[in-house]
Amino acid sequence: MQGRGRSFSNSLLSTSNNSAAVSRLSTQPSAASLSLSLSLSLVYTEILTGLVFSNLNFTSLSKPSLCTSEFLLTMKAPTIAHSRHQFLSGGATFSLRPKPNLHRPTSATFTVRMSLREDAPSLAVVGVTGAVGQEFLSVLSDRSFPYRSIRMLASKRSAGKHLTFEDKDYVIEELTPESFKGIDIALFSAGGSISKQFGPIAADCGSIVVDNSSAFRMDENVPLVIPEVNPHAMAHIKLGSGKGALIANPNCSTIICLMAATPLHRHAKVLRMVVSTYQAASGAGAAAMEELEQQTREVLEGKEPTCNIFKQQYAFNLFSHNAPVLSNGYNEEEMKLVKETRKIWNDMNVKVTATCIRVPVMRAHAESVNLQFEKPLDEDAAREILKNAAGVVVIDDRASNHFPTPLEVSNKDDVAVGRIRRDVSQDGNFGLDVFVCGDQIRKGAALNAIQIAEMLL
Ligand SMILES: NC(=O)C1=CN([C@@H]2O[C@H](COP(=O)(O)OP(=O)(O)OC[C@H]3O[C@@H](n4cnc5c(N)ncnc54)[C@H](OP(=O)(O)O)[C@@H]3O)[C@@H](O)[C@H]2O)C=CC1
Ligand SMILES: N[C@@H](CC(=O)OP(=O)(O)O)C(=O)O
């Protein structure tokens, strides 16, 4: 299994020279008038078998990265009849997808995907019908995550329903203890109780479980991982060793906060962190997102808002996070920020306090983060550190009052940081305030989990 996702089958990839490619292309039984206008250093011979294009001219073919399994195929496309083409070759499915913003291009970039491959791991997605489960599928596709098969799992309610993924039809199966036979990687997002019940069963079957719930996060034998922050925590877990394992995905507020705080922590060591969150509906699942939409419509129409998920009006309102309130007055979401930060930073002395608020935003969390450092760190140095941090973008334009917003980061992979400023309540440069926004379902959940899975490949 080791090295899966990085090796390419010779039957699919040929380094034949350009003239060979041209002659092969011209023999295709298609309606195409294909002609190559640039030299190709890499040529997919098998891919082109059976491919029917009309009036397309390839202008270049490149492979941006060995790890992505993606080839960029640039072609002149005077008319594109279909937004998505699919063809089969050598047992693998390849899709050509125009980038969404290019509807009627004169020249378009297409991605040739080769995710479905015999030499790739078998996957299971648990909770596939949910907000996070659906995002798992989007991220798998966006990142061309290699897979041999995918088992789509949800509750009995969804069993038998169909879903389409990368142009292939799947039947959703009910999650049972037998679901994990032959599964290499299981992505869980069906809530803590399901994870507690089925996570260990999957691991016993030899699957590596990446669990989105809070079920195992504080278990000392389970790594709690943000790939940009503490990848080393899961270094001992190997795909293909025959041994299953559990890896926990942190809480979404913790992920988004630590994406910004960790690069600064590495330079100046955070002694104390005060976090105030503004959390989106998505954190409470697909039904909460629907309720926010429905309530917004109802309030605008002068109707009484329907309150099924939350016990109070959500639209045009905000309230303390819905997680249970504990005996110390903090709610569970707040204490996750405290405890998970300590575990991820492997620093039991870091002081963290948090206040978590649910705001009527659809899918991205925002957080105000106040940091106190052991060593001085001025705001310009902090801005530079953050600009160079993986998975972080800086939006910090004081002149035009432009800073991160939930809408700007929605459906984006990167966490945005702005309002980077010295904390005037602290002496010298020992304190900073920053404002962070991140897509809760993406980096806060599905993307982080799939980055974890990528580290197994
Ligand atoms: N940072 C993080 O890691 C985050 C983690 N999460 C975790 O992910 C979980 C799911 O979140 P989200 O997608 O937003 O929630 P949703 O409510 O949108 O989806 C819940 C999913 O769980 C499935 N499910 C429910 N009961 C069962 C069952 N008995 N057996 C199998 N599947 C079941 C549902 O299937 P069906 O449609 O059939 O009912 C559905 O697919 C959360 O409970 C939380 O634990 C969520 C957000 C962030
Ligand atoms: N943090 C999510 C809730 C959640 O799913 O948390 P966890 O993954 O820790 O259970 C929210 O915005 O409400």
From TrEMBL:
Pathway(s) where this gene product acts: Amino-acid biosynthesis; L-methionine biosynthesis via de novo pathway; L-homoserine from L-aspartate: step 2/3; Amino-acid biosynthesis; L-threonine biosynthesis; L-threonine from L-aspartate: step 2/5
InterPro entries xref list: Asp_semialdehyde_DH (IPR012080), Asp_semialdehyde_DH_beta (IPR005986), NAD(P)-bd_dom_sf (IPR036291), Semialdehyde_DH_NAD-bd (IPR000534), Semialdhyde_DH_dimer_dom (IPR012280)
Molecular function (Gene Ontology), one example: NAD binding
Annotated EC: 1.2.1.11
Enzyme class: oxidoreductase
The entry's keywords: Amino-acid biosynthesis, Diaminopimelate biosynthesis, Lysine biosynthesis, Methionine biosynthesis, NADP, Oxidoreductase, Threonine biosynthesis
SUPFAM superfamilies on file: Glyceraldehyde-3-phosphate dehydrogenase-like, C-terminal domain (SSF55347), NAD(P)-binding Rossmann-fold domains (SSF51735)
One GO process term, biological-process aspect: threonine biosynthetic process
Semialdehyde dehydrogenase NAD-binding domain sequence ranges: 122-237
Reactions performed catalytically: L-aspartate 4-semialdehyde + phosphate + NADP(+) = 4-phospho-L-aspartate + NADPH + H(+)
NCBIfam families in alphabetical order: asd_B, PRK14874.1
Record family assignment: Belongs to the aspartate-semialdehyde dehydrogenase family.
Subunit-level organization: Homodimer.
Protein name per its UniProtKB record: aspartate-semialdehyde dehydrogenase
